């Protein structure tokens, strides 16, 4: 596969992944679909890893990769799309950092658990379990408020972990692909070339 086609394919995969991260983070801000508990959200929700890291910081390389997959560079010329590929190299490295940020914060959110009300006290009641609460859903009833906060957080943070892992992989592929594209150019034939 040519570097241009590969870049376009990777970019078209990164864009929906970044939008999934943005939506998942937005949903974490409203446990059980209500805004009444925003004063008691966990730190990992407020760090906006899905919005900033897995979302905006990956959306930029996704768009850059799609543009790098386009034909031509700076109009007509023989640079073989190297300018856009070079921009995609830096963009992919930036996106990889964002995806790593999203993965680390979301992983911590899963391990620590949500902040919830238990026996009249708002705290991270699952922090002492070191993530064991994930396997024992009978513990999920510890939280009195917000209702259903544990499955809500587990589902959305798991989605962020999975999406950010894919983003790291795709940004890494695009980093290598764009570097090859800068050094070697694109292998696609230009229109008007004689075969």
Give structural notes:
This protein has 5 helices and 2 strands. It is mainly alpha-helical. The chain has one domain (2-70, 79-113, 149-184). Helix 1 runs antiparallel to helix 5 (149-184), helix 3 runs antiparallel to helix 4 (82-112) and helix 3 (49-68) packs parallel to helix 5 (149-184). It has helices at residues 3-28, 43-46, 49-68, 82-112, 149-184; strands spanning 116-118, 121-123. The model has no long low-confidence stretch (mean pLDDT 84).
Give the SSE layout.
Layout: H1 3-28, H2 43-46, H3 49-68, H4 82-112, E1 116-118, E2 121-123, H5 149-184
Antiparallel strand pairs: 1-2
Helix pairs in contact: 1-3, 1-5, 3-4, 3-5, 4-5
Q: Quick one: how many beta strands?
A: 2
* Order of strands across the main sheet: 1-2
Report mean pLDDT, rounded to a whole number.
84
Topology as H/E string? HHHHEEH
Which shape, going by the Cα principal axes?
A: elongated
């Amino acid at each position: 596969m040519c570097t241009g086609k590969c870049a376009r394919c990777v970019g078209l995969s990164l864009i929906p992944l970044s939008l999934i991260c943005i939506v998942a983070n937005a949903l974490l801000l409203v446990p059980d679909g209500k805004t009444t508990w925003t004063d008691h959200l966990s730190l990992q929700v407020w760090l906006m890893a899905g919005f900033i890291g897995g979302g905006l910081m990956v959306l930029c390389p996704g768009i850059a990769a799609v543009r790098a997959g386009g034909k031509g560079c700076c109009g007509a010329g023989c640079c073989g799309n190297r300018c856009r590929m070079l921009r995609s190299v830096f963009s992919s490295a930036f996106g990889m950092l964002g995806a790593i940020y999203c993965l680390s914060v979301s992983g911590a959110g899963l391990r620590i658990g949500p902040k919830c009300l238990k026996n009249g006290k708002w705290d991270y009641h699952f922090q002492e379990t070191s993530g064991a609460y994930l396997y024992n859903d009978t513990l999920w009833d510890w939280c009195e408020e917000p209702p259903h906060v544990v499955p809500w957080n587990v589902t959305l943070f798991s989605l962020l972990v999975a999406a950010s892992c894919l983003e790291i992989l795709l940004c890494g592929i695009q980093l290598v692909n764009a570097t090859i594209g800068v050094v070697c150019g694109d292998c696609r034939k230009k229109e008007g070339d004689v075969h």
